[in-house]
Design goal:
alpha/beta; TIM Barrel
Length: about 290
């Protein structure tokens, strides 16, 4: 192995690093309709986390995408049962504003929730819409995190749209899920210029030709999209800096070992890898870890 990284050698020898734990800021719980995921079972998921020395993962149950009340309750039970392993994002479905307002009144009673999750592409409601305002104002007041699914030039959650709300709600730490997949230049520019915006690497390490997927994450994927773009992680580190990048996998969709390998074999330093794997998340999640 020609890679000079000490961390890479340790991962290759052990399958994990003793000195470099991982914090995954983008995970899910449970099965997803019609999709086979070997790690969807909670016990298998925990085994996968331990194999890669993932110290903690911040999740949203798949159930919360369509039924936020049931999904958020499941997340609370998981946090309580597996203390220290799981933290959660409270799913906000903008199509049910009356539920949002009720949830916000009781949010301080929750345990282990670091903030909210916006999944606008799936809920087909723009993140700049008025139904998101109560959650944004609450998160700004309480200085919470919000994981926002962002994608290309989606009409619901493009990087440009994320930038417009991040400039207004400056006390919220916005995590750009998938880093605005495809529109890398805008995403990296936002992370560099706005102190409260962070890039998140889920699917970035397996990035496809974004010209075929520019209209949102629901766009059909042509065969040509399997042509990979090299150097995305290096580009992010060079332009935005390693302190603005967070590790994420969408587990149980993707393997933390595969995602870790993409970072370990990028042309960056071990200090920058430490930032991405755990230091940045430790700083943001300090009071929860």
């Amino acid at each position: 192995m020609k890679n000079p990284s000490i961390l890479a050698k340790e991962f290759m020898n052990r399958g994990f690093s003793l000195n470099c734990p991982i914090i995954d800021v983008h995970g899910h719980l449970g099965p997803f309709r019609g999709v086979y995921m070997p790690s969807a079972d909670i016990n298998l998921m925990i085994r996968t986390l331990k194999r890669c020395n993932v110290r903690c993962i911040v999740c949203v149950p798949h159930a919360a995408m369509v039924d936020p009340q049931r999904g958020n309750e499941l997340m609370q039970k998981t946090i309580d049962k597996y203390k220290g392993i799981f933290l959660g994002y409270w799913m906000i479905n903008p199509n049910h504003r009356e539920i949002i307002e009720k949830d916000l009144q009781n949010f301080e009673k929750t345990r282990g929730f670091v903030g909210f999750k916006f999944l606008a592409d799936y809920h087909t409601y723009p993140i700049t819409g008025e139904n998101y305002i109560p959650a944004l104002e609450y998160a700004n007041e309480k200085k919470l995190m919000i994981l926002v699914h962002t994608w290309g030039d989606s009409q619901f959650d493009s990087p440009k749209m994320l930038g417009s709300i991040a400039e207004k709600y400056t006390n919220v730490n916005f995590v750009m899920g998938h880093s605005g997949f495809g529109d890398w230049e805008t995403s990296v520019k936002l992370a560099k210029e706005l102190p409260n915006v962070y890039l998140e690497l889920t699917a970035v390490w397996a990035s496809h030709d974004f010209t075929t997927q520019a209209k949102g994450s629901g766009t059909p994927v042509p065969l040509s999209s399997f042509l990979h773009i090299n150097g995305i992680i290096e580009f992010m580190v060079e332009r935005a800096g390693s302190k603005k990048i967070l590790f994420g996998t969408d587990l149980p969709w993707y393997s933390p070992h595969y995602a870790a390998g993409a970072i370990l074999f990028s042309h960056i330093t071990d200090e920058e890898r430490h930032d991405i794997f755990h230091r940045n998340a430790e700083r943001l999640l300090n009071k929860f870890l």
